[in-house]
Design a protein that fits this description.
Blueprint: E1 33-36, E2 56-61, E3 79-85, E4 97-98, E5 109-110, E6 123-136, E7 140-146, E8 155-161, H1 164-167, E9 186-188, H2 191-194, H3 199-210, E10 225-229, E11 232-239, E12 242-250
Parallel strand pairs: 9-12
Antiparallel strand pairs: 1-2, 1-8, 2-7, 3-6, 3-8, 4-5, 6-7, 10-11, 11-12
Length: about 250
């Protein structure tokens, strides 16, 4: 005979022992996973998730959270939300205003009207598409995703399913970001250089470059920029709306 079970709890689930009670005024944040992405450095990471659909990444759970039961049912969803930490943007103090790079770095906006990493709590939110869930022989369940905008090894605090019927708002207004949301560069990537990139990474790299990795205040057409992507260093210039790749070397 089943014992009384709280609503929403599976009576067959096992309790995790010795879980400390959380303080609602100081909730603990546990790193449940880390992402493996093609971005070893911050420069060049897409400014929003989903901008470059071809970008592949893998979510690898920390050893304490490699229980396949925790992912039960997730295979029926197409997208998930990732709640993660800006691990390289932690500051002791924050400014109530920031300079969004897309506004040229000269205009200040309220930090809560932006997605700046320099926040009271350095937490990010990304929506990514599930490619597949794999039961890895050594790493346990791992999630292959598309469209992530995270630095390699970024800590992930939580994963939640994306619910289109409530999370999607096509009529939403995007404030100062709306006029610049369609900004994109033409990319001139010489064939001799492009063939140095493995074919499975070419589309993603082209998408990253098309969305202009530079801060908007950097407009010198003679400047050569460097982007670390996967196992490669990509050097390029930008002039008159065209990004031209001039060198590809192994990292």
């Amino acid at each position: 005979m089943l014992k009384n079970t709280p609503p929403g709890k599976d009576p067959n689930d096992k309790e995790t022992p010795n879980q400390p009670k959380s303080d609602p005024e100081n909730p603990p944040m546990k790193i449940i996973a880390r992402i493996r992405s093609d971005f070893p450095e911050k420069f060049g990471i897409p400014r929003q998730s989903g901008l470059v659909d071809a970008l592949k990444a893998v979510i690898v759970f920390e050893p304490a959270y490699r229980n396949p039961d925790a992912l039960r049912g997730l295979e029926d969803f197409s997208h998930i939300w990732l709640i993660w930490g800006f691990s390289q943007s932690v500051r002791d103090q924050y400014s109530p205003t920031v300079r969004p790079p897309r506004l040229g770095g000269s205009k200040r906006m309220g930090v809560f009207a932006t997605r700046s990493p320099f926040r009271p709590n350095p937490i990010g939110l990304s929506s990514v598409k599930i490619d597949r869930i794999e039961n890895h022989s050594e790493l346990g369940p791992i999630i292959h995703v598309y469209g992530a905008d995270l630095l390699d090894h970024t800590p992930i605090y939580d994963i939640k399913p994306y619910l289109a019927y409530t999370d999607s708002h096509p009529e939403a207004v995007g404030g100062f970001s709306d006029p610049i949301s369609d900004y994109i560069l033409a990319v001139d990537f010489p064939a001799a250089l492009l063939q140095l990139i493995p074919s499975e990474h070419q589309s993603a790299l082209m998408g990253v470059l098309a969305h202009d990795p530079r801060p908007s205040y950097q407009t010198d057409p003679l400047r050569i920029y460097g982007l670390a992507f996967n196992r490669f260093n990509i050097r390029f210039t930008v002039q008159d709306g065209v990004l031209t790749v001039c060198q590809v070397t192994a990292r």
